[in-house]
Every structure is written in structure tokens, then in C-alpha cells.
Write a structure and sequence with these properties.
The complex is a heterodimer. Chain A has 2 helices and 18 strands. Chain A is mainly beta. By secondary structure, chain B is mainly alpha-helical. Classes of the chains: A mainly beta, B mainly alpha.
Chain lengths: 258, 978
């Protein structure tokens, strides 16, 4: 009797070992909730203008510190901080959809974005780039520049470019409005770049106008950023196929009103 | 009437009743046995582990589904086909390999046999040779011929044997080679398969492993669970980390992960995961195997407290966060307080306390939330002056408050009386606490007594004060003074802000190092202020206020600015009115400590009013321990008045006096926290019973809740020894150097201006432009020479290294010993020897390459490198970067090439740009190799070619960032230096 029990226990043990070693590769059959689909683009657009009331004119930079820079210009060079058109529009304002977009990732564009250093100035002075998009930084001057990016969220970098036509490639991983670029050799040089994770942004032109295309219908929060005058936001509703229009205005002294 | 039970004649008991009794008792035994097994088996931790398994499986299933959504169906099919193909290929390869291995074994045997054969023949040959030798000497012709023939024959046979052996050996070598090849192929194929499986298949496997199938239940079944049950107690033995069990220190045996299953794994933190199934925060620092504090070495209770061995919720010593959690726990887990557990689990906010037990005095954790701020707060508030704290960090420190030895020359008695009454009313950010008019001294009599005490203290101070004369300062310009105040560096330690609260600056309290200078004009005399600014040490020898080497005019401007900071409320002050009777009673009380009642009364009658005030003042200063924080004539050698708190973190809860207060939970941290926030609370209900002198005296510091929590954390860290020497992080020669250095850094508030160990630069809230901030001292020990730093700290004004900075490095008047402490601290922190041997002289090629590349990279655009350097108008090079002419005496030659190669890796955010691109593999790409062929550098190329055999060699050299940076250093060292 006792022997029989012992054999039974052994048999169970053997069964355990077989099951434990053999049965581990069966696939599960359950299903779970599906993740959100990639967001759709649409046909709506937002066009707008940026007005600037009673502003001071742009001031000139002295490039005497680096004679090489000074020889690159015949006309006086302006700071580009406040650039207004004849009609009172404000240029170099970065406008982007801050909130309201459907969740999901927009594919990263294949195209590159160029930040040039020409005539000891950054070109463009204000621009936008996508997260993950390739940024090419070029030195088109026959003098030393250093590209010192000062992001708060992304990785800071500071790369010297001593030779003419040197190029540097970088990407920003996280959305950040704005990232400032400076050059420690030429303290007057600066550029601002808005890093966004969607394609809905624009920079106002000399007339102060901007346009954002390809939006799906919805209600969005639009933010306008200016390096000296601060930021201001507005809510905008757009419907498919329609162009909504928005007017931002900034006032001197940095108190924006919409 | 029941019939009596039938009795079998030969037995004294009844079979029937016996059977019933046996039946019931065996049934009962069975039930109890089952109950026992079930109770022993169904431990709560098993339920938790099983629950977690289900939850994790669920999560994996959704991940798997998400992964599937990402891939389209054809991808999955393709990957699966590839996996199948790889697997089939692998199986074939394995077979082939096995066959080869068999052959190898066979060949091995053959080689062995052939080798033995050859050796036998060889020995026979040797014997034959000997016999031939013997025959040649002594034998006849027949023997000679025979011996010769035998030698020849054996020699031929040996040759044959060797040939056979070598053939086998060769074959074996070939087989081995193809085995190696096949094996490498196999490893590669297995790697590829693993790679393919990683995504989907890996997830699928992991899900399958968490399935609860028959084996799971069998292995966990009672009596079966001795094999390898999936549900089991997870424990680690922590040698050298002790738990006090019945007065014996024994190694901890941590079992926390039995329930906190996911603590060491990432990804269990979102909202979906509740305790005990959450990941530990900051796995990069704690618990995970790759962190500096892996679970297997440090466990959990070492830091968190609690009973290491417990697997039961209540016995583990969990401490509820609040009443609500307590109720929840009682309901869910049957929680109850553990009276006999000395160290219950610390609330999460105090966990950092335990860092001290291993990190000791030098504990300095830039990322700590509460410990470092808590220790800083102890230093600023001067806790250690009344409560002895037996850690070197809190010993032999100067008194934290200003010297009162010459107070009469600095301010007015009316101001002093008003200040003592309520320091925070005059300056809300002050560290000086409120001693008077606290909640245990509110009776009318006590109010009178306190007014008398304040007036008496002031009378004593003015009575003993020295009175140097300070002539009025030259007239200054307040506007210039304001600009200077903002730029020269005052703001590293001082605020000037009437609305600032101390808590606004938590945890970066460096800007509260010196007093907030608001209302200065209503406090001090202008003559004193001028003399003080010019040379603080002439007023107080051990002050930590440094000299900024102000010119007369600068000092006068600052005085004009600061004296304009006035508040009319503090201008026409008068001394408080004192009830003479209250004062005399106090004097009498003190006199009676040493004299009879009669003598005391006689003595009092002899004393003038001023004498009575001065006498009471001295006693009051003694009573409150004012001399703990202030240098004061007559109290140079007085002993601390408070309880020693060196082991406060281990003091048993029952030794804390909660008085008649019933709504404070009886825990160590609640007592300390309550005491800090409301120091007189334990006198509640005892005001009438205690005499005036017996009432609690600890002053009110006005701590915010965060400040109090930080101090509680630090105080809880003052525990009994509980780790072995081998587990201390501060063992070895570096530990004391770091501890001593950090102590000085705190003492002189270096971090008010500098970033040191990633902490500090508090001045940045006053200086907007990042480029104008005082230097980041990261890597200082790797960067500068010890001799240079020594000289520099002696006299920072001797050389202007960063002329563009408005902030001045002050002259602190350090002793040689202090400077040596700082110098070896920086070296120890950066893992360098304090002193460095001189560099090897360079070869001419390095100097030449260095010079050319220096010019190509345009280093002199920012660094002054010669007498003509800063000639340009506007922003000159002298305003951008330190002069390289200082390099040889200042910098460590071994550091310069590394710095040039990657400045950002040494000092984040530095203005020095990187000129070499870092590759992902850690090597650096040099732009010079490509540039040298450009037409604009043709002359440079020509110059360099004099030092190289070929263009290729030159390009190789220039492409090598290591060599180029050394060449640049050699140029700076040997060419510029000459």
C-alpha cells in the first residue's frame, strides 16, 4: 500500500516536470483594446495676420568686434528683433497649433531644414522644425562660428564651425517652443526655432501674414510667439475645405492682446 | 428510561461509544489538519503574487496586441517564415555539428592509439641503439650486423608510425576547425533567431510563461511546493547591513519583494499600478541590478526601515500616511501598530534619512529632495550649537550668527530690543528664532517677565560691548551702489526684498546665507557699514562675510544704496516698558539658586537698577543659550544647553515626551516634526504646574512644512551604527577629504555663486545672462593645478581670469589648512592625485601641428593668446574666454587635450564649442583632415608637410582627435608660453 502511494507521488512529480518543461510556448488567444489610429490630415486651413502697434524701429548691430564680419556687409545690419512691414504687420512671429489636435504621431518629413550662418547672422532668424526632422546647420562665412543651441527640454549642444561651408546635422527629439541658438563668438547672432511634433505651424512674413494648411476640422488653440513681445493664444474653429482667418496683435512693451 | 449500555464482559469500555468518540475526534483532527495546512498555505503574499501574475499577463497581452497592430499581417507572416527557416537551418546545422563532434571523439582515440604506438616503437629503437653501441664495443661481427639491422628496421618503422600519427592529427585539426566554423555559424544563427523573436515572439513567450496551467497549480499545491513553486518567498541576505534583533545586530534578511514583486522592474508605474505592485521610483539609482544600490546588495529595509524578515503586512511595520490610509489598512490588511518594532517603515518622504548610515559625513546628494536641504538647514539655523550632533559635519563650526562683541558700535539698543522681541517681523527670511511670547508663556505675569528679560539682555550686551569708533563714510551715489549690489556678487548670499519669505528659496537656501538687507538703513550706522564692507574681519575675526576688495568709492556707493533702505516703523523706537517688580522677582529667583532667601534679598537691595538688568541679562542669555549662535563676551566656554541628538533617529518612541497632547501620532518623526513646527507644544496643559524657569525654551524658527520635513529627514538620519565598515560608502582615504571639502563649501556658501557637484549657483536668480554667471566648478580638480588653486584662493584679486564677469571672486581670508582642504577635496572628487608631474617636452612636429591647427580652428578669436590679442574694438577676445597665457601655470596639462576634445562632457552649457564630433562609439571625428586639402589652407599644408613623409600620413594625423588635441596643448604650452 505504502509503496503504491510513493509510486503515485513519483508519477505526479514526473507529470509536473513534463508539463513544466514542455508547455511553455503556447500562444495566447486573448485580444485587447486597439491603440489609437494615426491621425488624419484634412483640408481646412488657417490664414492670419500679425499686427504690431506703435513699435520702435529695428536697431543696427555693430560688427566691429570681428572685422571679417564687418567686411561682409555694405549696408548697416539690423537686429531683426522687431521687423515690421509697411502695412504694420509683424514678421518673425512663430504661429503653431498648441492644442486640439487628434492624438497620434504624424510621420516625420524626409526633407531637411537648413539653418545658415551668413554674413555673421543666422538665417532664418525664426523658423520651425519637426521633432525627428533633420536639421542642417551650415557656416557660409569665412570665419569661426559656434552653433550653441540652448534648449531646455532637448539636449543642449555647442559645436564649433571654423571652416567655410562646414555642415552639421542634428535632430531634436522632443517638442519645444522655442529653442534659442546663439554664437558665443558673435554675441549679436541669434536664431529661434520652434520644435513641434505636427506639421501645423508657420512663421509670419514681412507683411505679418501666415498660413497653416492641411488641418482636419476641429477646434484648436493657436499660439503666436515673438522673441521680444511674448506669446498670445486664440481659439479657432475650422471646417473641412474652409479657410478660417485669425488676427493677432502685439503691443509695444511686450503686453500682447488678441 | 434508557437502558444502560451493554458491556462486553471482558472489556471495561463500550465499543459503540468508543467508535463514535474516535470517529468524531478523527474527523476533528482531519478538519484541524486541513485547516492548518490551508492556513499555512494560503498566505496573503501568495494571493498577491498570483494577482500580480494575472495583471502582468493582461498588460503583456495588450502590448502584444498593440505590437500586432503596428505590424501588418504580411510582415508577421514574413517574420514567422523567416523564424521557421532559421529554426530548420539551425536543426540541420546542429545535426551536422553533432556528427562532426562524434568524428572528433573517434579521431581523438585514433590519435591516442597512434601516439602510443609511435612511442613504443621509439623506445624499442632507443633500446636497439644501445644494444648496437654495446655490440660495437664488445660484440663480434654477427652481433654487430644483427644490431645494425634491427636499428635500421626500427628506425623505418618509427618513421611509418609517426607518419600515421601526424595524418590523424592533421585530420583531427581539420575536423576541429570545421567544428569551430560551424559553431560560430550556429551562434550567429541563434542570435539572428533571438533578434527575430524579440518583438512579437518574445512577447508571446512571456505571456505564455505567465499562463496559469496545470503545472502552475501542481507546483504550488500543498506538499508539492517544495520543488520549485512559482509562488515563493523572495529573500536576500544582506551581510554587513544590520538589524537589531533582541539587542543583537544580525545581518538583514529582506523579504519585501515577496509582495512588492515589481519594485525592481521598470514599467509598472502608471495609474494602472497600485501598491504593492508598483515599480520603485528612480530605478537608475535604486533597486535595479544596474543601479548603484541593487536590491540583492542593499535590500529594502536598509533604507526604508521596517522588519526585514516579515512577510505579513502588519508585522513588516508599514506606517500609514494619514488617518484615512490607516482605516483603509485596518480594513484591508488587519493593520495594527507594532509596539515592539523600533524602526517601523519610514514614511516615503523621510526615506533619504537612511543614506547617512552608509554615506556618513560626506553625504551630499544633489538629487536629494530633503536630506541635503535638511542638513543645510541644520547648518544655517545652528541646531548643532544647542544640541550636540556627533558628526564631523556639525562639529568645530564657527557660531552661525553675527558676533555681538561690538554690537554697540553697529546699532542702537532700541532696535536690538525690538529685534529680539520678534526677529521675523523685521526680516521675514531670518534664521534668528523667536524666543519670547510663545504659546506656553501667555499669562500676564509671564508677559511681564519676558519684557523684563528682553530689556535685561540688551542691557547686558551694551554693558559688555566694545565700542570702536567708526567715522562717517565719504558720500556715495546710491544709483551706482544699486548697480554694484546687483553685479559685484552681493546677491550670491544676500537678498534685498521686503516681501521674500524663507520658504520661497527652499531648497536652494544659498541666497539666505547672509541676511536679507531690507531695512538696513533703519538698523545700522553708516560708519559701521562702510568699515564692515571694506574689511569685515576687522569687526569680527571669524565672520564668513568675505571682502570684495571694494574701492573706497565702491564701498561708499554701496553704503549710500543700503542706507537708503529704511523703514520708518523702526526709526523712532523706544525701549520696552518694564515692570520693575517682575524684573526683581526674576533676579531674586536666580539669586536664590546660590544664596539663602535672606542673603538674596539683601543682595538685591544692594544692586542698582542697571546692575539688576545686567545680572538678569546674563542669566537670561545663559538660560536661552544665545552664545550658541553669537560670539559674546563672558560666554566663550559655555556648554550647549540642549539635548544631544547624535542618535535621535534611533531613540525609542517611548522616550519622547508627548505630554498631554493626544492628537499627534506616537511616532519618532511626528514628534520631531511637531516639535520643530511648534516647539513649546508639549507644555500644553502644564503652564500652571511648571515654574517659569521650567517651561520649555526651544525657540520658534518659523519653519515651513517643507523645511520641517527636511530637518526631520536629516535628524532621522542620526542613528546608531548599523552597517559594517566594509559597507560604508565613505571608507577609504577619499571619504574624509570629500566630507571636509563639502563642509567648507557649505560653510562659506561657495554654491551661492558656483555650481559645485551639480548644485548651487543660486545667484542665477539675480543675474539673467548665463554668460555672466560665476564659473561652474565641475571637474575643477581635474582642471587646475593644486599650486595654482592654492595661490588663487589666497588672493583671488591678484589675477583677473575672466575680465568680462561683473561678479568678483571675494577674498575670504582662508587659512592654509582650509585651502588645502578645498584643494584636496576637488582632486578627490574628480579622482585625481593632488599634485601632478610636469609634462614631457614635446617634439617639434607636435608644436608645428599645434600652431597650424590652432590658427585653423581660430582659437584666438575668443582666447587671448598673445599681447596683441584684444586689440579689436567692441567685443574683444578678452571678453569671451580666459587668456591662454595663464594656461601653463593654471591648467593641468593632462586635462587640456581631453577638454578640447569634448568641452560639453566636462561642463554642460559651456561657451567653449566642441570642434570634434563625438561618434556613437565614443571616438571623435576631426574636421581638420578634410579641411587641410581646401585651397585656403594650401600654405598651412605646405608648412605641415615638412614634418610628414606623405600626405596620407599627415591626413591620418589630422584625423586623429587624440593626437591633434595633444598638439594643440603643446602649442599652448610650449609656443605661447615662450
Amino acid at each position: 500500500m505504502r509503496k503504491k502511494n510513493f509510486l503515485a507521488a513519483l508519477a505526479i512529480l514526473a507529470a509536473i516536470v513534463v508539463v513544466a518543461c514542455g508547455g511553455a510556448e503556447k500562444a495566447p488567444t486573448e485580444t485587447a483594446k486597439a491603440p489609437a489610429a494615426a491621425p488624419a490630415s484634412g483640408t481646412a486651413s488657417i490664414a492670419g495676420t500679425i499686427a504690431y502697434a506703435n513699435g520702435d524701429p529695428d536697431t543696427a548691430i555693430s560688427m566691429n568686434a570681428d572685422p571679417k564680419c564687418a567686411t561682409l556687409h555694405k549696408e548697416p545690419v539690423l537686429t531683426e528683433k522687431i521687423v515690421t512691414g509697411e502695412t504694420g504687420g509683424l514678421a518673425n512671429v512663430f504661429v503653431y497649433v498648441k492644442a486640439g489636435l487628434p492624438a497620434g504621431k504624424y510621420p516625420v518629413p524626409e526633407t531637411t531644414h537648413l539653418l545658415d550662418q551668413k554674413g555673421c547672422q543666422y538665417r532664418p532668424h525664426v523658423s520651425g522644425i519637426r521633432t525627428g526632422q533633420k536639421l542642417i546647420i551650415r557656416n557660409s562665412d569665412p570665419t569661426l562660428h559656434n552653433v550653441h543651441a540652448l534648449p531646455k527640454v532637448n539636449q543642449e549642444f555647442n559645436q564649433g564651425q571654423p571652416f567655410e561651408n562646414m555642415e552639421l546635422e542634428r535632430t531634436f527629439d522632443k517638442a519645444e517652443v522655442m529653442v534659442r541658438f546663439k554664437c558665443d563668438v558673435h554675441p549679436w547672432m541669434s536664431s529661434y526655432m520652434g520644435v513641434v511634433d505636427h506639421p501645423f505651424f508657420a512663421v509670419s512674413d514681412a507683411a505679418g501674414s501666415f498660413k497653416i494648411d492641411g488641418l482636419p476640422a476641429g477646434e484648436y488653440t493657436l499660439e503666436a510667439w515673438h522673441e521680444e513681445l511674448g506669446t498670445t493664444t486664440q481659439k479657432v474653429s475650422v471646417t473641412e475645405g474652409q479657410a478660417a482667418s485669425v488676427a493677432f496683435s502685439f503691443a509695444a512693451g511686450g503686453v500682447p492682446s488678441s | 428510561m434508557a437502558t444502560p449500555p451493554k458491556k462486553t464482559p471482558d472489556r471495561h469500555y463500550d465499543f459503540g461509544r468508543m467508535n463514535v468518540a474516535f470517529a468524531w475526534s478523527s474527523l476533528l483532527l482531519l478538519v484541524v489538519t486541513v485547516w492548518m495546512v490551508v492556513a499555512d498555505y494560503a498566505k496573503p503574499w501568495k494571493r498577491l503574487q498570483s494577482e500580480f501574475r494575472d495583471l502582468e499577463r493582461q498588460q503583456l497581452v495588450s502590448e502584444l496586441e498593440a505590437e500586432r497592430q503596428q505590424l501588418n499581417e504580411s510582415d508577421i507572416v514574413a517574420v514567422e517564415a523567416e523564424i521557421a527557416e532559421e529554426e530548420a537551418g539551425l536543426a540541420g546545422q546542429r545535426d551536422a555539428l553533432e556528427e562532426l563532434e562524434d568524428r572528433l571523439v573517434g579521431l581523438g582515440k585514433k590519435v591516442y592509439a597512434a601516439d602510443a604506438e609511435a612511442r613504443t616503437t621509439k623506445s624499442k629503437l632507443d633500446t636497439a641503439r644501445y644494444q648496437l653501441d654495446a655490440a660495437l664495443q664488445h660484440g663480434d661481427e654477427g652481433e654487430k650486423t644483427e644490431a645494425r639491422e634491427r636499428v635500421d628496421q626500427l628506425a623505418a618503422q618509427y618513421r611509418e608510425d609517426r607518419k600515421a600519427l601526424e595524418a590523424f592529427q592533421e585530420e583531427r585539426r581539420a575536423v576541429q576547425e570545421s567544428i569551430d566554423q560551424k559553431r560560430a555559424g550556429l551562434v550567429e544563427a541563434e542570435g539572428k533567431l533571438a533578434e527575430l523573436r524579440k518583438g512579437l515572439d518574445g512577447l508571446r513567450l512571456r505571456v505564455a510563461n505567465l499562463d496559469k496551467r496545470l503545472d502552475y497549480f501542481l507546483l504550488n499545491a500543498p506538499l508539492m511546493d517544495f520543488v520549485e513553486p512559482p509562488l515563493k518567498i523572495e529573500q536576500v541576505i544582506l551581510s554587513g547591513l544590520y538589524q537589531d534583533i533582541n539587542f543583537t545586530a544580525v545581518d538583514r534578511v529582506d523579504r519585501c519583494m515577496t509582495c512588492h514583486v515589481a519594485a525592481g522592474r521598470a514599467g509598472f508605474d502608471g495609474e494602472d499600478w497600485k501598491q504593492p505592485f508598483r515599480s520603485h521610483p528612480r530605478l537608475d539609482l535604486f533597486v535595479s541590478a544596474v543601479s548603484p544600490h541593487p536590491y540583492t546588495e542593499f535590500g529594502c529595509t536598509t533604507c526604508h526601515g521596517g522588519l526585514d524578515r516579515a512577510t505579513d503586512f502588519a508585522r513588516a511595520g508599514h506606517s500609514p500616511r494619514d488617518e484615512e490610509q490607516k482605516r483603509e489598512w485596518i480594513e484591508k490588511w488587519g493593520w495594527e501598530p507594532q509596539k515592539y518594532l523600533d524602526d517601523p517603515i519610514l514614511p516615503a518622504e523621510y526615506s533619504e534619512a537612511r543614506c547617512v548610515q552608509c554615506h556618513g559625513d560626506g553625504v551630499w546628494t544633489p538629487e536629494s529632495v530633503a536630506l541635503d536641504p535638511g542638513r543645510e538647514l541644520i547648518l544655517r539655523t545652528g541646531c548643532y550649537k544647542c544640541h550636540e550632533i556627533g558628526y564631523t559635519a556639525f562639529e568645530d563650526l564657527p557660531r552661525p550668527g553675527p558676533s555681538l562683541e561690538k554690537i554697540a558700535a553697529k546699532t542702537r539698543p532700541e532696535w536690538a530690543a525690538e529685534w529680539i522681541r520678534a526677529p521675523r517681523e523685521f526680516r521675514p527670511t531670518t534664521w534668528m528664532p523667536h524666543f519670547f511670547f510663545q504659546k506656553n508663556t501667555t499669562s500676564e505675569t509671564n508677559l511681564e517677565r519676558q519684557r523684563a528679560e528682553i530689556a535685561a539682555v540688551v542691557a547686558y550686551l551694551w554693558n559688555v560691548s566694545k565700542r570702536p569708533e567708526y567715522p562717517p563714510p565719504p558720500a556715495g551715489d546710491a544709483a551706482r551702489g544699486e548697480e554694484l549690489f546687483q553685479t559685484v556678487g552681493c546677491t550670491g548670499c544676500h537678498l534685498l526684498d521686503a516681501t521674500a519669505e524663507r520658504d520661497d528659496y527652499y531648497p536652494e537656501i544659498q541666497r539666505l546665507h547672509g541676511p536679507n538687507l531690507v531695512r538696513t538703513g533703519s538698523k545700522v550706522s553708516d560708519g559701521w557699514l562702510y568699515a564692515w564692507l571694506k574689511d569685515p574681519r576687522q569687526f569680527a575675526a571669524d565672520t564668513r562675510m568675505p571682502s570684495l576688495r571694494l574701492t573706497d568709492r565702491e564701498a561708499a556707493d554701496l553704503v549710500a544704496y543700503l542706507m537708503a533702505q529704511r523703514d520708518p516703523a523702526y526709526e523712532g523706537l523706544e525701549m520696552p516698558e518694564v515692570d520693575a517688580r517682575a524684573r526683581d522677582e526674576l533676579v531674586l529667583d536666580y539669586l536664590q539658586n546660590n544664596l539663602t532667601i535672606e542673603q538674596s534679598e539683601a543682595r538685591l537691595a544692594e544692586m542698582s537698577s542697571l546692575e539688576r538688568d545686567v545680572y538678569l541679562g546674563e542669566e537670561t542669555i545663559q538660560k536661552y543659550g544665545c552664545w550658541g549662535c553669537h560670539n559674546l563676551a563672558g560666554f566663550e566656554n559655555a556648554k550647549p544647553i540642549g539635548v544631544e541628538i547624535t542618535e535621535e533617529g534611533s531613540k525609542p518612541v517611548h522616550q519622547f515626551d508627548f505630554g498631554h497632547v493626544h492628537d499627534v501620532p506616537h511616532t519618532r518623526h511626528d514628534w520631531i516634526r511637531t516639535k520643530l513646527l511648534d516647539p513649546r507644544i508639549w507644555d500644553h496643559g502644564k503652564e500652571e504646574v511648571k515654574s517659569y524657569g521650567e517651561l520649555l525654551k526651544m525657540p520658534h524658527f518659523g519653519f515651513s512644512e517643507r523645511e520641517a520635513d527636511a530637518i526631520v529627514t536629516a535628524v532621522l538620519g542620526f542613528t546608531k551604527e548599523s552597517v559594517a565598515e566594509s559597507r560604508r560608502a565613505d571608507r577609504g582615504p577619499e571619504g574624509p577629504k570629500l566630507a571636509a571639502g563639502r563642509k567648507l563649501v557649505s560653510l562659506y556658501n561657495c554654491q551661492g555663486c558656483h555650481l559645485i557637484e551639480d548644485k548651487g549657483r543660486a545667484i542665477r536668480s539675480a543675474i539673467e545672462d548665463v554668460g555672466m554667471l560665476p564659473p561652474n566648478l565641475a571637474a575643477q580638480g581635474a582642471r587646475v593645478q593644486a599650486d595654482w588653486l592654492f595661490e588663487y584662493l589666497h588672493d583671488p584679486g591678484a589675477v583677473q581670469m575672466r575680465p568680462w564677469l561683473g561678479v568678483r571672486m571675494p577674498t575670504f581670508g582662508f587659512s592654509d589648512e582650509e585651502i588645502n582642504t578645498v584643494v584636496s577635496y576637488f582632486a578627490a572628487r574628480d579622482g585625481r592625485e593632488t599634485f601632478l608631474s610636469p609634462p614631457a617636452p614635446p617634439d617639434s612636429r607636435n608644436r608645428a601641428v599645434g600652431e597650424v591647427t590652432f590658427n585653423m580652428l581660430q582659437c584666438a578669436k575668443c582666447h587671448p593668446a598673445g599681447p596683441q590679442a584684444s586689440a579689436a574694438a567692441g567685443v574683444g577676445s578678452a571678453e569671451l574666454a580666459p587668456s591662454l597665457l595663464l594656461a601653463t601655470s593654471r591648467l593641468r596639462h593632462d586635462w587640456v587635450p581631453d577638454w578640447i576634445k569634448d568641452p560639453q562632457s566636462w561642463i554642460r552649457g559651456t561657451n567653449m564649442p566642441a570642434n570634434f564630433m563625438r561618434n556613437p562609439d565614443g571616438t571623435y571625428l576631426s574636421p581638420l583632415a578634410g579641411a587641410i586639402d581646401a585651397p585656403m589652407f594650401s600654405t598651412q599644408k605646405q608648412t605641415l608637410m615638412r614634418h610628414f613623409e606623405s600626405e596620407e600620413e599627415l591626413r591620418d594625423y589630422l584625423a586623429d582627435a587624440d593626437r591633434v588635441t595633444v598638439a594643440l596643448r603643446d602649442h599652448i604650452w610650449w609656443n605661447l608660453g615662450d
